[in-house]
Amino acid sequence: MKSFLRNEAVRFILFSVMILALPALLAGGYLLNVFVFVGIHTLLAVALNLLLGYAGQISLGQAAFFGLGAYASGILTATYGQNPWWVMVAVALTVGLLAFLVGFPILKLKGHYLAMATLGFGIIVYIALNEAVDLTGGPSGLPGIPNLTVGSYVFDSDLKNYYLIWGVTLGAILLSLNLVNSRIGRGLRAIHDSEVAARVMGIRVRLLKVQIFALSAVISSIAGSLYAHTMTFVSPTSFGFNFSVELVTMVIIGGLGSIYGSFLGAALLTLLPEMLRAFQDYDIVVYGFLLIVMTMFMPGGLVRGVPELARRLLARGEKGRADA
Amino acid sequence: MNLVQQLSQYILSGLSTGAIYALIGVGFAIIHNATGIINFAQGEFVMLGGMLTFFFFSALKVPLLLAVALATGVSTMAGVVFERLAIRPLKNATPINLVIITIGGSILIRGIAMLLLGKDTHSLPTFSGDEPIMLGGATVLPQHLWIFAVTLVVIVCSKLFFSHTISGKAMRACSYNRRAAGLVGIDVRRMVLFSFTISAAMGSMAGIIIAPLTMTSYDVGVMLGLKGFCAAIIGGMSSGLGTVFGGLILGVLEALGAGLFSSGYKDAIAFIILLLILFIRPQGLFRRGESERV
């Protein structure tokens, strides 16, 4: 059983079946809507994890790529009436190119300097979204973005969007799994451990870092487009510094360098605020508290922390039985 | 007003906000040098300073000077408690986990402030009147002078502390090499606690002296904290003059940009400057490049 579960293909199929069967359990309703967002956040977290978890390069500006994708899709379809599918592809490639160009000077930086530069980039984009009122509608947002359609089929319900978004997310997960288990993935991990050693081994460190940065931007931009068409409305507050931080938190709480960990982190941090609604104004306090406690007691993230916890509880149970 | 007057006005107000950024930035640098982490909760101490002063002054009718002292004291205690509860218990945590903890701490402190002190925006009275002083064509508010004076005193005191007291020297030793500092008998954990104490005190003072000019609310900490981080990065993470100049440069360029181009893009201008500086001098403006050990 254990070796069976170690097989990457088996795990992916099990995960996909679980995801695809989930709407049946949720039976429509409000939680299904939440899980649409879990899908979008998983997509974003997986993209960031490639950069942060595997290559070891932090980005505090991921929300910018997400926002650029969402706004570009929104403006080109709602204001200029273009075909949303072509727009999504064109925008993703443009955002990727932008990330590629910005990536060269930014990824030369390390540690806190890299964090600051990506953070700065994110804030510049956020302010531009707020200030370019003619184009973006400014702080009050951009309404009237059409739902996606295929022929006469309109993605206008939570269930339809669930399958659309999770279809894309599962695709991205598959791509990422293949990527991290390939020559490129090994190169990324080598960079994580030591850039000099990686270079000595013949890895083109700078190019590879920029490429993975651009890839994560492309995926984030697609997530943005999907978000815009699902919500049919976007406003700048969804793409600010706080959301960039939240994405980094998802990846770390889930587990650095684990694709499924990103899903766990995204699911937890998306569900948590919904569950904390009952606390009303206290929710932000509880959220901050949980963030601290979880990082303290599960430093390896959920994906390593939960099995560890289970093992410890089991061991204690057995010990209890032995004592009795 | 002619252009020269306008420019000197921008530069003056830029210098005063820059002084605030400098104070916050030095706080960032002190914690970073002692622990190797970026304390994202730094901005919340700034917020606490302003908000608590308002609380003591308006709600409890305490005299302003006493309110300032109480607010600084309570914010500093918050820093100490935060270090004790969230940073110290983690002996072997990776820096990235510690950063996440400071982010959690910042959310927690902001939330508590919102619950206890409310969501409203408040203004504080200036410390000594609003009578503007004419200075070479530019108008100076007495509050500006307070900002310059407090910043100067704090920076000079910290300089003296770091170069002339045994604790200050011990903290510097920790910043060079924590393990070596421990080996020569320095209590590294105590120095970490000191660093949080000093940073929280500095941050809250920055928050208090700026509050009469800019208003204060439970969520002002984020942007001010980021600008302080900016100043520290430009200064190459030094806890001394580098960061002070970093803050002043940032404040002045930001004020000029806002005045001459567009006030809506004011914050964007600050970060564009930052990116340019980082692209040209990745190690900060005031630091020589170091070769990396592998």
Can you lay out the helices and strands and say which pair or pack?
The complex is a heterodimer of chains A (324) and B (294).
Chain A: H1 2-6, H2 8-26, H3 29-54, H4 62-79, H5 84-106, H6 111-131, H7 133-136, E1 149-150, E2 153-154, H8 158-180, H9 183-193, H10 195-200, H11 205-231, H12 241-254, H13 259-276, H14 283-297, H15 302-323
Antiparallel strand pairs in A: 1-2
Helix pairs in contact in A: 2-8, 3-8, 3-11, 3-12, 3-13, 4-5, 4-6, 4-11, 5-11, 8-11, 12-13
Chain B: H1 3-35, H2 42-59, H3 64-87, H4 95-117, E1 133-135, E2 138-140, H5 142-164, H6 166-176, H7 178-183, H8 188-214, H9 221-234, H10 241-260, H11 266-280
Antiparallel strand pairs in B: 1-2
Query: What is the overall shape of chain A?
Result: globular
Which CATH class of chain B? Mainly Alpha
Percent strand of chain A equals under 5%
What class do helices, strands and sheet pairing of chain A give? mainly alpha
Strand content of chain B: under 5%
Number of discrete helical segments of chain B: 11
Instruction: Count every beta strand of chain A, where a strand is a DSSP E run of 2 or more residues.
Output: 2
Q: What is the share of helical residues of chain B?
A: over 70%
Number of H/I helices of chain A: 15
Q: Considering DSSP H and I runs of 4 or more, what fraction of the residues of chain A is helical?
A: over 70%
